[in-house]
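Quick illustration for those who missed Monday's session on complexes.
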Amino acid sequence: MGKIRYNKIQTDGFSFRLVKNKVFYCFVIFMSMIAISPVVFIIIKLVIKGIRQINLNFFIDNAPNTLEAMTAIANGEIIPGGIANGITGSIFMVLLASVMAIPLGVLTGIYLSENQDKVYANIIRNISEILQGVPSIVLGILSYLWIVINITRGFSAFAGSVSLSIMMLPLIIKSTEETLKMIPSTIKEAALSLGVPYHKVIFKVLLPTGLGGLLTGILLAISRVLGETAPLMLTALGSSVINFDVTKPTSAVPLLIWEFYNDPNLLDLVWSSSLFLMGFVLILNIIVKKMANKWVYG
Amino acid sequence: MVNRNINESQLNDYLMTIEMNKAIIDIKNPVLTIKDLSISYEKGKYAVKDVSAGIKKNSITAIMGPSGCGKSTLLRAINRMHELYPSIQTFGKIYLDNEDISAIPSIKLRQKIGMVFQRPNPFPTMSIYDNVIAGYKLNGTRIKKSRKDEIVEKSLSDVVLWDEVKDSLHKRGTFLSGGQQQRLCVARTLAFQPEIILMDEPTSALDPIATAKIEDLLVELKKKYTIILVTHNMTQAARISDLSMFMYLGELIEYGITKSLFTNPVNKKTEEYLTGKFG
Ligand SMILES: Nc1ncnc2c1ncn2[C@@H]1O[C@H](COP(=O)(O)OP(=O)(O)OP(=O)(O)O)[C@@H](O)[C@H]1O
Ligand SMILES: [Mg+2]
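Prediction with adenosine-5'-triphosphate bound:
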């Protein structure tokens, strides 16, 4: 009697658990779909609204002015011109920022990973972490106070890239440290046991071994700052022409998006510029993923 | 008490210094001499205590002892790899061919005294070829391509790996099996034609077949090189070593011909260890 009852309960419990599993499974799928839906909607929206504007001119022409746009709209044409000044400005400033941030960030990362528990290393590590939490607009203000007022005496590409490089620094420091920490110490010992001096061990063994991780960190930092607008407003300001002079105001894609947004006639360009920026960052991220898979320690 | 040099031809008729329960063989014309060596990581605590010993040329010397008794520390002191720990303190001297090793630049010393580690550690970014000549490459020593080829072939042949990899020299070293990787690591140290090769449990991460291959290799290599081998594997020590050291709590307690140390240990601790009473 008791045995039959027991079996019955067992079966019931089992099927109930099955149902519970199913329900939970569907719930998880549903929630994750909600979670990714903004991304999907954004991409769809950007493509639908922005693809129209993307043609060759979009990449080689400077941003149009209100009048040109208004005429085109009145004639039922697409807005002429492109965002060449923004693309070149973004690339120029990000490159400049990288030139400053990469060596400093990588060297600091090496220092931190080689001196884990030193007091000084801990201080640096904490400062770097705090820096990562500083709002980008504050970094823009800092760069404004240091560079715009004192050094270039005016809005400049240099000031813009300084604020970007300060944003990149903590990301690069962190990723370098984490990557190097992952490399087994036996590899370092192998090199040292061959009589290789310490600095050569770092630069010829550890860095190449962790190259995948290092590059990943650097590219992520780059894709982070590519979309930054706030610090550039206070530093690079923007420009209607292509500029490669570090002392002159310079445009950038996110700055253009902001300008387009503020001009009812140029509103259409917001979509195409955003699409471009998103695509660019997405491609960078895909490259990063591919690289991380390919390298040993990444 | 008694201190007499051994007769090379009849290794069994030797006398040892027996002093306070230590039984240490005297090696005639040692290639390496350790003299009153003490090493401490922390003040007042000695990882290696008062070790004195000579190492016989073209032989395999096994270092045994329970975990934490200072085997690795002693081994690393021989090519000054222990200096990597900044707070370490070393007392006493080590002589390589009567030259104080602390007076030899560490680069030169480590080329004369190579090291093989517990886990195979080929450089993951380098090809098999580059791994063998890594010492030259990383040190920036310029040598001719033909000379490089020669070194690579010779070193890989010496570790019996040449036939297995000669068609894939430019593949990454990390694609090899564990045993092959370990032989590659031996080849890497052979590339410098060192006098001494230090090995810290070189087979403990390998399967029995790969282990047997390395053991055969070591027996072959001792014709040209002097090998000092830390091992936890007593049968391995018994199989391939000529001389054995037994360390306990940082001290070298017994050092003698492997056969007699295994069959007729002088020290009680050695005997207990060998019979598996602790360790
Ligand atoms: N980096 C270090 N810092 C502080 N103490 C250490 C360090 N390395 C080793 N020691 C200490 O030194 C002593 C000897 O260590 P060692 O590694 O030489 O032992 P071992 O005989 O090689 O042991 P095992 O058989 O486990 O490898 C141990 O007591 C250990 O705790
Ligand atoms: Mg050890």
